[in-house]
User: Which sequence fits this backbone?
DNA sequence: ATAAAAAGTTAGGTTAAACAAACAAATATC
DNA sequence: GATATTTGTTTGTTTAACCTAACTTTTTAT
């Protein structure tokens, strides 16, 4: 079954899409996969055969498509990378949500495990650390527009910080 | 000349490599491009023709290869994306430098202009804002290992912060 | 100055991923 | 339950990017 563990970007996208369709429609259909990936149904069939041979989906012609346990494990992993990147782009960098989603979809194939782990940790840390968190992200947002920090304001901002630890 | 503005990931890598070789050796040679990209020289020739047709490099058989102004502009842009991502991965997320470089090399083709702009801004902001900066990154590093924040320590950390504004 | 070595190119082949269009199966409708 | 529609598959092509191996040009060394 496990012909080759290395999945191309394209095959990763198929798995991700199938997972997504399983969630919303219980089952994935060729037509819907094609629609989501903006490709023709004929191209989908070819990919499904490959995924079937790799043991990642249950595929037989004309039947509904479902992920195998191994396929699901991989799909969830891809989805996790996607969500992490999207969260970082949208919630931290404040990139608009559609762009964040599209870029996450491309970057998810490029990120390595170490960077992903650190990114997850970073996102948590920004949230957890009293020195950062939501209000700090607001400051970032303003900085993005003005491209500079105001030392006057920094001074008063810093003074208000000790109160933050109480809130938690 | 400008046959098509959209460059594949592969062609972007060629341009980036040529820029790199121009910097170190004044000129790029087929053999060196092949070595850097870990592909065979025969494959390089094909790509060079395409880049030549697109007006991005000065290419004629057996001659040295140089970037045209347009090619250089694009190569510098790719390089900029690469450096930004590498900086973020290595200096902020503290991913080891070789991994950061390799991942940046893959992500540079996936990031969109808005996300790049925000990322550049973010990296600056982390450096500029008195609430973050180098010592905050040390805290992140510790957090990465322990996976939790120590509220006791947070309290004393916050109290030391106002002094930070003076330093700047 | 020429022969050997190195570098570069060409030609033909492979693979992955898409396409279009003809065809087959399944589902829905009357 | 027959037929029309929808859905899915097959077949044959295309394209990009690589490969190998033969060949050509350039460079180096004697």
Assistant:
């Amino acid at each position: 079954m496990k012909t080759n563990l290395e999945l191309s970007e394209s095959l990763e996208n198929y798995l991700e899409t199938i997972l997504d369709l399983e969630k919303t429609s219980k089952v994935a259909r060729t037509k819907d996969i094609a629609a989501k990936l903006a490709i023709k149904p004929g191209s989908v069939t070819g990919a499904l055969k490959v995924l079937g041979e790799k043991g990642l989906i249950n595929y037989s012609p004309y039947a509904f498509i479902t992920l195998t346990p191994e396929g699901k494990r991989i799909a969830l992993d891809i989805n996790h990378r996607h969500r992490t990147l999207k969260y970082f782009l949208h919630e931290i960098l404040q990139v608009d949500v559609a762009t964040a989603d599209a870029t996450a979809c491309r970057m998810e194939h490029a990120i390595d495990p170490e960077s992903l782990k650190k990114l997850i940790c970073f996102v948590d840390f920004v949230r957890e650390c009293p020195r950062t968190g939501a209000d700090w992200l607001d400051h970032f947002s303003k900085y993005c527009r003005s491209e500079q920090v105001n030392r006057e304001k920094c001074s008063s901002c810093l003074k208000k910080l000790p109160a933050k630890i109480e809130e938690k």
About this structure: The domain at 9-75 of chain A is CATH 1.10.10.10 (Arc Repressor Mutant, subunit A). Residues 29-31, 41-42, 44-46, 61-62 of chain A lie near DNA strand D (CB under 10 Å from a C1'). The longest helix of chain A spans residues 69-92.
